[in-house]
Amino acid sequence: MKAIWKGNLTIALISIPVKLYPAIKRKTIQLHLLHRECSTPLKYERYCPVCNRDVEWSEVIHGYEYEKDRYVTITDEELDSIFYEESKSIKILSFVSLKEVDPIFFDTTYYLAPEEGGQEAYILLRRVMETTERVGLVRLVLRGREHMGILRVYQGILAIHTVHYLNEIVRPDFIDLPEDVGIDRKTLTLARELVKGYSASFDMTAFHDRSTEALMELIDKKIAGKEITVKPAKEVQKVVSLMDALKKSIAATEMKKKRRKAAG
User: Fold this and answer.
1) pLDDT tens for residues 229-259?
2) For 157-184, how does the pLDDT look when each residue is reduced to its tens digit (9 = 90+)?
3) 127 phi, psi to nearest 5 deg
4) Which of 139, 177, 183, 233 is 20 to 30 Å apart from 155, CA to CA?
5) Selection from 138, 18, 141, 137 nearest residue 87 by Cα
């Protein structure tokens, strides 16, 4: 895999030469937009209505609309110059507990690999982060934009999770919830029993992308010329009694456990 960035991971006067690799590869199936009449893929062209012609990529620049139909233009070189020095390094600002970072902040994940001459410092940093159970708060520049990130150890490799800035998180103040609905102790005890019955160790190997698999199955059937029948949507049953629903749910959970034991 080709590295998307090369530079240094720095803390104080220590500098570790590293390479950055994407850790995520989307597996969703790409569907094209076609003309219903002839199944021809649609084209999207860069067209200037003032010059009345198509525009090549070499003629394209960035622009910010500061007033209606008024733009200030920004070139790629100007974007690169904003964080030129910072774009050459990933700076560790501090070490924090991972428990302090809410998952809502996480965005994209990257792997960090040591470059020639940086192996010893890389291993040292990995070991000290493992023994202290701390993660690093870092600052890095990717594609002309400064990001904050969390540096941590994942399966023996240093990984960086870029995080959203606080002003990017939508506050849930607009959601209107009642302060107290008067949940009684018996209902709460049953709810805890249900959670206990569903509790398990986190294991992503037990899950797979059912949406992609189902879509691929549909595509294969269509290629093979098989008839496709659209199933009617199931009607969602309304909960009449919360207590009744909890009792039935717990009973169903116990039944599943008995079946697993019998099968085992």
Assistant:
1) 877 877 766 666 878 888 888 888 888 878 8
2) 999 999 999 999 999 888 888 777 788 8
3) -65, -40
4) 139
5) 141
Pairwise CA distance, residues 251 & 256, whole Å: 9
Degrees, nearest 5: CA angle 58-64-66: 150
Domain assignments of the chain as residue spans, ordered by start? 5-26+81-167, 47-80, 178-199+239-264
Closest C-alpha among 252, 257, 250 to residue 190? 250
Q: With H, G, I as helix, E, B as strand and everything else as coil, classify residue 145.
A: strand
Q: What are phi and psi of 148, to 5 degrees?
A: -100, 150
pTM, entire model: 0.77
Give Cα 8 to chain centroid, integer Å: 25
* CA pair distance 158, 21, nearest whole angstrom: 11
The architecture that CATH gives domain 5-26+81-167 is Beta Barrel (2.40)
